[in-house]
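Lecture notes, unit on binding sites. The following record was shown on slide 14. It pairs a sequence with heme C.
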Amino acid sequence: MPAIILLIVSAAFFSLDNHTIAPENHTVQEDTLAASNKKYVDQIMRWLGDRADKPAEEVFKDIQMFKGRTAGDMIRIMDGAYRRSLGVGCAYCHDTQDWASNDKTEKQATRAMAEFTGAINNDLLPKVEGIKSEKPRVRCGTCHQGKPRPGADL
Ligand code: HEC
Ligand code: HEC
């Protein structure tokens, strides 16, 4: 019995550890980014109100990728898959005075990156034989891991 408890405790410890392997300063940096961008998320969610459950294209101005997803889900993806997995703030891709603006190359690159990620998941990964997962997939964070430019010599 004690052995089992030890096993459970150590398993919990190791899984926790897996999520905190990023250097400490990185975690602090993400906490600061999350806090300073929370005001944008809160502002938009308040502005949306009941319309958070409506399709994104009905409430926002220039929706090309998120047609059919709810506005609320889209904002959660902005904050998670996009902002957090790149380790950036909303302003990395946006003019925060005009969210629909496409002036930033980073916003444009994101649309192409989403297509590229879809092509890997839908066309390329299924052709790889011998993969252990039933539905293997890459996400923004698989490559970016908190960095805006993975693999670049900065
Ligand atoms: C890595 C780039 C990136 C980051 C970071 C990002 N966004 Fe976006 N955002 C986009 C893209 C691309 C679109 C367009 C989506 C589409 O075409 O369907 C978009 C669209 C939007 C829109 C809709 C604007 C309109 O009226 O058409 C809002 C609002 C928005 N983002 C808010 C946010 C907020 C808030 C954050 C931070 C929590 C954020 N975004 C972070 C790339 C980003
Ligand atoms: C298979 C790996 C991979 C995946 C998955 C991936 N990216 Fe990238 N991304 C890269 C690489 C490599 C670059 C080029 C970085 C460089 O050298 O500038 C890049 C560049 C970018 C850039 C442009 C940065 C610049 O140079 O200005 C943005 C924005 C971006 N990615 C967003 C995303 C988002 C959002 C997702 C998820 C929808 C995503 N990426 C998924 C590997 C990936």
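Take-home: Residues 24-48 form the longest helix (25 residues).
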